[in-house]
Write a structure and sequence with these properties.
There is one protein chain. This protein has 14 helices and 21 strands. It is α/β, with parallel strands linked by helices. The protein folds into three domains: 6-125, 3-Layer(aba) Sandwich (Rossmann fold), CATH 3.40.50; 132-376, pyruvate-formate lyase- activating enzyme; 382-435, OB fold (Dihydrolipoamide Acetyltransferase, E2P). A six-stranded parallel sheet has the order 2-1-3-4-5-6, sandwiched between helices. A five-stranded mixed beta barrel has the order 17-18-19-21-20. The protein is globular, with a radius of gyration of 23 Å.
């Protein structure tokens, strides 16, 4: 096998994986490889996998099968991410088409692994060094108007259904100077919005230039001082780590968007306890109210699991009740998927598939109703959107609202522009409007 000259990275799952995929692409480009053009085969394909749900892992292996043959040969295939971390060398035993297995904490070694694999030596690296990968990354290059920035990795919560503590390791915060430096580089490269990422981003802790120790609030207030950075977001948070300073920041930092993704998973205290979630339904709702007191226009997003072992119809009704009480602007919902090695996989009381299907449909219908109601509440408002792509129609552009909805309008604005739009139309997953130009100065 010859050393690859072109590459393609396909990321599955969470925004953390999207960020990791971007960094791997930058790393490979820094080593002289070129991204494969659209429609062309790549010499190296990196499948950056997710292990949270069974289907995501199986999808990655299906892609390996499809890549096995190409023009009488096959591309070099690297299995990266959480599936790689969880399965290690077993992944190569499962498929002899996989040349490289590299975990999410070792992807900075990808160029070395590629060089070894090009010599016919299959490679596995699932070591979990503490954040050393960031030191090995090249400087960020030109980016789009919105950029991801990982500030925290790992999780110490050990929810009984989740593999993250095993595939991403313990909670670790990137140092203050590294995060601030990368954020400044992203803005210099064209970013006007930065989303701070972490498996439990609200657990981030650091020490600033003056020796003050603090949490995510301290970091957000510092990033808000960067000229050219217009918007700040963060995801994903755990209810146990949302402190008063972070709540206050939403009311005091104009650049911090009024959007909070805060997974609850279930509205049943009994199920929450079985999940090893540290909150109750009441404490979660009280937390939401504190955020809305600080920022009345706060949009809430969440995650839900239906069919967790032992879940009854009464438990599920309590989940519907918390949906109605919170009035989610958006949410992600899934059927429970047992992950090997997690405590929940050994629990009794499995919920039948047809019951899970029915509950998921009912939950999603309720969530969709609240999402549409939230979108409709914006009709008649004028708001800023950050243009990030072209629309399907001539002259149409699409941008993100402060609440993360996609907003389409006809405008001659360019990607990266912030424009004012009066909302005239609300759809289940987007908004439509017309551009409002500022009045000419007298």
């Amino acid at each position: 096998m010859t050393h690859p000259k072109t590459f393609r990275i396909k990321s599955f799952g969470c925004q953390m994986n999207v960020y990791d995929g971007e960094r791997m692409a930058e790393l490979m480009a820094d080593k002289g490889l070129a991204p494969a053009a659209d429609g062309e085969d790549a010499d190296l394909v990196v499948l950056n996998t997710c292990h949270i749900r069974e289907k995501a892992a199986e999808k990655a292996y299906s892609d390996v099968g499809r890549l096995r043959t190409r023009d009488g040969g096959k591309p070099m295939i690297a299995l990266a991410g959480c599936v790689a971390q969880a399965e290690g060398a077993e992944a190569q035993r499962r498929s002899d088409a996989i040349d490289i297995v590299v975990g999410p904490q070792a992807y900075h070694r990808l160029p070395e692994l590629v060089a070894e694999a090009a010599q016919g030596r299959r490679q596995v690296d699932t070591d979990m060094p503490v954040l050393s990968k960031f030191d090995a990354m090249p400087a960020r290059r030109k980016v789009g108007p919105s950029a991801f920035l990982t500030v925290q990795e790992g999780c110490d919560k050990f929810c009984t259904y989740c593999v993250v503590p095993y595939t991403r390791g313990a909670e670790v915060s990137r140092p203050w100077s590294d995060v601030v430096g990368e954020a400044e580089g992203l803005v210099e490269g064209g970013a006007r919005e930065i989303t701070l990422l972490g498996q439990n981003v609200s657990a981030w802790r650091g020490i600033d230039e003056k020796g003050h120790e603090g949490g995510l609030e301290l970091l957000i207030r510092r990033l808000a001082k960067i000229d050219g950075l217009e918007r700040i977001r963060y995801t994903t948070s755990h209810p146990a780590d949302m402190d008063e300073g972070l709540i206050a920041a939403h009311g005091e930092v104009d650049k911090l968007m009024p959007y909070l993704h805060l997974p609850v998973q279930s509205g049943s205290d009994r199920i929450l306890k079985a999940m090893n979630r540290s909150h109750t339904a009441d404490s979660y709702l009280a937390l939401i109210e504190r955020f809305r007191a600080a920022r009345p226009d706060m949009a809430i997003s969440g995650d839900f699991i239906v069919g967790f072992p032992g879940e009854t119809e009464e438990d599920f009704q309590q989940t519907l009740a918390i949906v109605d009480a919170t009035r989610y602007a958006s949410a992600y919902s899934f059927k429970y998927s047992a992950r090997p090695g997690t405590p929940a996989a050994e629990m009794k009381g499995a919920v039948e598939q047809h019951v899970m299907d029915d509950r998921l449909q009912r939950l999603q219908a309720r969530l969709s109703a609240h999402s549409l109601a939230f979108n409709r509440s914006k009709i008649g408002e004028t708001l800023s959107i950050l243009i990030d792509r072209k629309g399907k129609k001539p002259g149409q552009m699409i941008g993100k609202s402060p609440w993360l909805q996609s907003v389409f309008c006809e405008t001659d604005a360019s990607i990266g522009d912030l424009v004012e739009v009066e909302i005239t139309e609300a759809l289940p997953n987007s908004l439509g409007g017309r551009r409002v130009r500022p009045a000419a100065a007298a």
